[in-house]
């Protein structure tokens, strides 16, 4: 079996990532050697591969669904927004440029070549490549320079299925409109639709499905139901509410309350998923001045990663949340950018160009931003347990004295800081850390669950995504598209040529 497919969506967060992961898991269970591919990803959630390349977390989860090691070819272009108009561009997992929205166009021809080379390397190495689009294929203002959607599909002759999120409402209009706004050559590759996140009796949709097929000449290849507590590594904060829920069955005592600060450029917030998966741990994201009380009352406050450390620190001060964090007497954890904010002084001529900035002063440390980006897969030990993690940062932290080392960071009393992402996914370390947090917070009634495996939980979630495809999609039609490509003679809707 050899072939390919592109999963596009009517909008961001329509479900492209989870459908792509589900198709990868379904095919892998059939014995197909399959790989995911996203030519261009815009995300602040990233990961470091075994060979030191930075790619989007969603493609890492999709590779896990496929049962293969993630590589830079699976996400050759990664855009990491640092402001309203500027992005840090990673190419094949390495820093490439910092550009604004208009400057980026000058790089498109080269980046298209890079993306296609990656795609063809995957096609040569795997039986099937399942591609994920970016945003919507009908961003008609950007079509000329498109790399990730119909530009890729046209260049490589890839059949396309379009996912629509019915939970948002207007799914039939959005599916029809997505097709209608495309030019005829693009429309010829749109081979079917998938409706995602449906609640209710599927037969209620039958008249609409029949009319959509009559109007477009394309079938709906499945109606995927809404599933509670279904999640995977996310691309952006639009989907934060789909992180794992708090599971407290079998737990005695009140919840250990964790407040996570959600600043504007929050990154790698998947660090929190392992905490949220713990029975008896309640995770809340806080982001407004009115949340100061939540910070004061939490048993643990987490300052997560940030793509704009100095900018998000200024935001903390504007909202008054900086004072709430600095005024706490209870446990506080800073991860990467959050750790940098907790230092006494930050020197940044690289990311923000702000020069010297006062930090929160929670740790006796100084941060200096350097031009060279650190991408690493460190291993270490804490609380007597091994810890494997990954590092992504420009800021280099040095201790001023009086601090205890902690995972390439430091600790003073009940304040911890680390540069390492993913540390909390290590089960034994996480339990020991939570026990220490509970003791420091005076929560004698909280004892971490002894048997939670975060890796096993992630595998169950990926299996659930595979089940969604196997049980609710027309897998025969999907296989036909993958192997044989888009059907010949698909009708073109007139608006596509009327631009």
Keyword list:
499 residues, alpha/beta, Rossmann fold, 2 domains, seven-stranded mixed beta sheet, six-stranded parallel beta sheet, 27 strands, 30% helix, 27% strand, Cobyric acid synthase, CobQ/CobB/MinD/ParA_Nub-bd_dom
Structure report:
50% of the residues are buried. The protein has 499 residues and is an alpha/beta fold. It starts with a strand and ends in a 15-residue tail after the last helix. It has 15 helices and 27 strands. The chain has 2 domains: 3-231 and 458-497, P-loop containing nucleotide triphosphate hydrolases (Rossmann fold, 3-Layer(aba) Sandwich), CATH 3.40.50.300; 252-448, 3-Layer(aba) Sandwich (Rossmann fold). The chain is globular, with a radius of gyration of 23 Å. The longest helix is centred in the C-terminal third of the chain and has 19 residues, at 454-472. It has a 7-stranded mixed β-sheet. A 6-stranded parallel β-sheet has the order 2-9-1-10-11-12, with helices on both faces. Helices cover 30% and strands 27% of the residues. Helix 1 runs parallel beside helix 2 (57-66) and helix 1 (16-29) packs across helix 14. Mean pLDDT is 92; it is low at 241-253. Residues 257-428 form the CobB/CobQ-like glutamine amidotransferase domain.
